[in-house]
Amino acid sequence: MAVQENKVIERWIDAEDPEPILEPDLPIIDPHHHLWDLRKLNDLGFRQEVYLCEEISRDIATSGHNIKKTVFAQCGAFYRADGVQHMRCVGETEFANGMAAMSRSGVYGNTSLCAGIFSTADMRLGTAVQAVLEAHLDASQNFRGIRTALPSELNSNFMDAFGVIEKFGLTYDNWSPDFSRLPILAELARRFPSVKVVVNHLGGKIDVRASDDDKASWRYAVETIAACPNAVMKLGGAQMRVGAWEPHFHMNNAKTPQGSDDFIDDLMPYYAHAIDSFGPERCMFESNFPVDKECISYRTLWNFFKKITKRLGLSDAEKNSVFYDCARSTYKL
Fold first, then answer.
1. Which pLDDT belongs to residue 58?
2. In a domain, 15, yes or no
3. Surface-to-core class of residue 185, CB atoms within 10 Å of its CB (0-12 exposed, 13-18 middle, 19+ buried)
């Protein structure tokens, strides 16, 4: 059943000229998507207010791409309304685990939704964060790690908490629109070489109309974190708005969605540099849906990614890594 609050974005997506599906049999893990119901609280103004099993399953099914598994990404969904404040975030893992259980029923298709889950925890707790992480682990066998903001300095509380992440063998996802913070993330990765550090969304806000100096600074920042062998890069998120800033292809600025060739023209240098810096074995394409849905359909997004690999001449093994194997090994799927 269509959700009234989703009608504007769904109408905009439906206005695109559907592209032929490229390589429909290629196995894919989507390692970064959100699920939520924002009808009562939507401070960031996301246009897709409801995105649950039915909505993501419809996007996957109508895309025609072979999405085998997905990973749920922290987004502040369904925190507990009661209990100790720092434990309320465990509600997000409980919620995502419920979505995984619904998916396992087969009612929503063959894709294993939320096969991996990463949520959050307050790193200011220091070693006391262990109780929160244990609660996440108890809440779901699919729990794999957390995503948090990064402090401007790696203070003792944060480092002590990170030691607990290392102890439990969990992943650490991070994104800031300010890519100049990537060297701090690199310092963290160097101090904890056994922790998988996952750089989200190409490392920061992607503005194709930025100055040459800003683009050069982004390239340098990416190279800095790529030098850490325990860091991996999520290739995606370049299609989203950041705060009040919106790219020219956002639904607020474009009457209809643009095609994958147009995205190649706009964004190819960013994806190419990230893959060149990290190597295909440490990169994974991500949808970042439904955030990126404000700029591109699920079908066109994965066509765009497949065209990137063709343009770069990636081998079959390299394609397997960026579409499937890096995500599988990172999140132990």
1. 97
2. no
3. buried
